[in-house]
Amino acid sequence: MKNSRRAVYEQAITEVEPSSDIFTRVKENAARLKWRPRGESESELSFKVSDSFWSWGEKVSVFRKNESIVVRSECSYPFQHFDWGKNRENVCALVASL
After folding, report:
1. Residue 83 has pLDDT above 50, yes or no
2. Which residue of 47, 67, 73, 94 shows the fewest CB atoms closer than 10 Å?
3. How many CB atoms sit inside 10 A of residue 40's CB?
4. Exposure string over 74-83, b if 16+ CB within 10 A, otherwise e
């Protein structure tokens, strides 16, 4: 059974360059933020954000949706319902760096 109450934050950004160029920049900036790569495909990247005092870590995904690129952060632990703003912080940090 999927827990639909997991803490999540996402933001769509209008693509201004080809997704391959955006994905290259996302990988560079994720490395700078010290996020560990989890997976990569032609249309999606995913990263693991380390645990902290406020959370058990997050999964950040970047994927194409229609004409936009979506950046999504969700708590790794399925029963963590409050993220104390950490998911929003992850998304904003990556979007600001693009």
Report:
1. yes
2. 67
3. 13
4. bbeeeebeeb
CA distance 8 to 23: 21
0.90 cut: is pTM over it? no
Q: Which domains does the chain have, with CATH numbers?
A: 8-97 (3.30.310.80)
Cβ atoms within 10 Å of 11's Cβ, excluding its own: 15
On whether the CB atoms of residues 69 and 19 are closer than 8 A, the answer is yes
Q: Tokens 């399925």 identify what position?
A: 78
Candidates 33, 46, 36; CA nearest to 90 is 33
Tokens matching residue 70: 């979506």
Q: Determine contact, residues 63/44, Cβ cutoff 8 Å.
A: yes
